[in-house]
Write a structure and sequence with these properties.
The complex is a heterodimer. Chain A has no helices and eleven strands. Chain A is mostly beta strands. In chain B, 0% of the residues lie in helices and 49% in strands. In chain B, strands 2, 4, 5, 6, 9, 10 and 11 form a seven-stranded mixed β-sheet that branches. A four-stranded antiparallel β-sheet of chain B has the order 1-3-8-7, with no helix packed on it. The model of chain B has no long low-confidence stretch (mean pLDDT 92). Classes of the chains: A mainly beta, B mainly beta.
C-alpha cells in the first residue's frame, strides 16, 4: 500500500531564502506526482504535475524533481516571499492501484511560513 | 480560467440527517472525484466517476455514500445518514483525461461539513 510522507511538517524561513520541501513515497511504481498548495481553510491549488517519465518540472520560481528509484520528490522554491506561506502537499498516483482513472495518495503536507 | 466550484461552502447538519454536496466540474473534463480532509489529517480519496458510473471507491465510501451526475454540469455527493465522524472538508476534483499531462486533477474550494 502506498504511503506518502512529507518532511518537515513545518518550516519557517526569512523572506528571500531558497528552500526545498521533501516528499517520499514507498511504492516507486507511480504514474505521476502532483504538488499542491493549500491556504488555511481553502481548497487545493495544483502547482506542478510530474509524469513518471520526467525528472523535473518548472513553473516560475517553483521547480519539482522526481526520483522514482529512491522514492523521492522535492519542491524547490526560489527567492521565497511572504505570499508563499501556505501548506504544500504532494500526492502520488500509482500504477498498481487506483485504476486507470486513478486516485491520488496524499502526504500530510509541509506548512511553510515565510517571514518578511 | 475555468475552475471547479462547490456549494455550499459550509454545511451544518444534525447527526442522522441526509446531506447533498454539490460540485460543478470544469466543463470539458470527463473524470470526477471526491476527496475529504478531516481537520488536521491527510486528504483522503473517496470515489472516482466516469461515464456515469463509479470507476473506483475507497473503503471510506460505504453504503451511506452515493454520487450522481444529475445533469450535464453538476456532480453530487450524498451522505444518507450523517455521523459525527463525517465532519470534514469535502473536495471535488476533475480531470480532462485518464493519462498524460491532461490527467492533472483540479480541485474545488471545498465544502466544510459539520455534523452536530
Amino acid at each position: 500500500k502506498q504511503e506518502v510522507t512529507q518532511i518537515p511538517a513545518a518550516l519557517s524561513v526569512p523572506e528571500g531564502e531558497n528552500l526545498v520541501l521533501n516528499c517520499s513515497f514507498t511504492d516507486s511504481a507511480i504514474y505521476n506526482l502532483q504538488w499542491f498548495r493549500q491556504d488555511p481553510g481553502k481548497g487545493l491549488t495544483s502547482l506542478l504535475l510530474i509524469q513518471s517519465s520526467q525528472r523535473e518540472q518548472t513553473s516560475g520560481r517553483l521547480n519539482a524533481s522526481l526520483d522514482k528509484s529512491s522514492g523521492r520528490s522535492t519542491l524547490y522554491i526560489a527567492a521565497s516571499q511572504p505570499g508563499d506561506s501556505a501548506t504544500y502537499l504532494c500526492a502520488a498516483r500509482g500504477l498498481n492501484y487506483g485504476g486507470s482513472q486513478g486516485n491520488l495518495i496524499f502526504g500530510k503536507g509541509t506548512k511553510l511560513s515565510v517571514k518578511p | 480560467e475555468p475552475e471547479v466550484t462547490q456549494t455550499p461552502s459550509h454545511q451544518v447538519t444534525q447527526m442522522g440527517q441526509e446531506v447533498i454536496l454539490r460540485c460543478v466540474p470544469i466543463s470539458n473534463h470527463l473524470y470526477f472525484y471526491w476527496y475529504r480532509q478531516i481537520l488536521g489529517q491527510k486528504v483522503e480519496f473517496l470515489v472516482s466517476f466516469y461515464n456515469n458510473e463509479i470507476s473506483e471507491k475507497s473503503e471510506i465510501f460505504d453504503d451511506q455514500f452515493s454520487v450522481e451526475r444529475p445533469d450535464g454540469s453538476n456532480f453530487t455527493l450524498k451522505i444518507r445518514s450523517t455521523k459525527l465522524e463525517d465532519s470534514a472538508m469535502y473536495f471535488c476534483a476533475s480531470s480532462e483525461a485518464r493519462g498524460g499531462p491532461s490527467y492533472e486533477q483540479y480541485f474545488g474550494p471545498g465544502t466544510r461539513l459539520t455534523v452536530t
